[in-house]
From TrEMBL:
It comes from the Eukaryota. InterPro entries: Metallo-depent_PP-like (IPR029052), PP1_catalytic_subunit (IPR050341), Ser/Thr-sp_prot-phosphatase (IPR006186). Transmembrane segments: none annotated. PANTHER family: SERINE/THREONINE PROTEIN PHOSPHATASE, SERINE_THREONINE-PROTEIN PHOSPHATASE. GO terms for cellular component: cytoplasm; nucleus. This is Calcineurin-like protein phosphoesterase. GO terms for molecular function: protein serine/threonine phosphatase activity.
Amino acid sequence: MNSSEFNDLAEFMKVNKDKVHGFLSNSKRGTAFYYSTEAVDDFLKINGLQYILRGHEVMPLGYKYHMNGKVMTIFSSSRYCGETNEAACVFVDKEEIRVVKFETHGRLVE
């Protein structure tokens, strides 16, 4: 993967999700896009991937599945900016994706 392809992929991972057809420019962020389930399916097929794991968006439970389970947003910081969100992390191997959730008071929950 060359640097241009890497930059394109990095920008794709930062996008917000919304109900659009294909891709739609996000004027609030300038460099990000809204994208549809069809766009995710096409991206995964073209790149030989099964899932997209993304971050950089607070999730109340620490993680959330989107786009028919093909996109997961993971957020690893609990009580971000004084909020009440939980935190989570992901373990990935050839057989499974495992989410580990951390409660804000420090106990580990799977």
